[in-house]
């Protein structure tokens, strides 16, 4: 957009045809300073020692109870299928022992969380103290 001064206008009264970028630069510098000050505050957090990933093989003891939940929500004690009431009855017997065995739950990856949650709730309801989840070890040679 070219503007030409009117006839007879001298150099001082001539219209300026460029954009004044000084306010834009001022605003950008203020924003830069604000971000430089606030970023360290946002990234600061409470010093915690987070748990490290560990892969401990389970110690299979004959008294451990292995429960399985298949993809359809079926519950198995070893290889025997059970409903939730029969499971609670068996877990009551296990919970009454002086030295409770560990309950290991193997849940199918395609199983709904609700099905596995019912097994955990049944264990808690009868007073089982040690519940573990069995998973496959990570593939070796990955990262």
From TrEMBL:
<dbReference type="InterPro" id="IPR003400">
    <property type="entry name" value="ExbD"/>
</dbReference>
<keyword id="KW-0812">Transmembrane</keyword>
<keyword id="KW-0813">Transport</keyword>
<keyword id="KW-1133">Transmembrane helix</keyword>
<comment type="similarity">
    <text>Belongs to the ExbD/TolR family.</text>
</comment>
<keyword id="KW-1003">Cell membrane</keyword>
<dbReference type="Pfam" id="PF02472">
    <property type="entry name" value="ExbD"/>
</dbReference>
<keyword id="KW-0472">Membrane</keyword>
<protein>
    <submittedName>
        <fullName>Biopolymer transporter ExbD</fullName>
    </submittedName>
</protein>
<keyword id="KW-0653">Protein transport</keyword>
<feature type="transmembrane region" description="Helical">
    <location>
        <begin position="27"/>
        <end position="46"/>
    </location>
</feature>
């Amino acid at each position: 957009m070219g503007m030409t001064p009117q006839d007879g206008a001298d150099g001082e009264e001539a219209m300026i045809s460029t954009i004044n970028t000084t306010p834009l630069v001022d605003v950008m510098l203020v924003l830069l300073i604000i971000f430089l000050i606030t970023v360290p505050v946002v990234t600061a957090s409470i010093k915690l020692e987070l748990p490290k990933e560990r892969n401990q093989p389970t110690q299979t003891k004959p008294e451990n109870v292995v429960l399985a939940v298949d993809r359809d929500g079926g519950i198995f004690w070893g290889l025997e299928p059970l409903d939730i009431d029969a499971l609670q009855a068996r877990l009551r017997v296990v919970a009454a022992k002086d030295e409770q065995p560990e309950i290991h739950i193997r849940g199918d990856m395609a199983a709904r969380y609700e099905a596995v949650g019912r097994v955990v709730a049944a264990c808690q309801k009868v007073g089982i103290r040690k519940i573990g989840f069995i998973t496959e070890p990570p593939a070796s040679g990955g990262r």
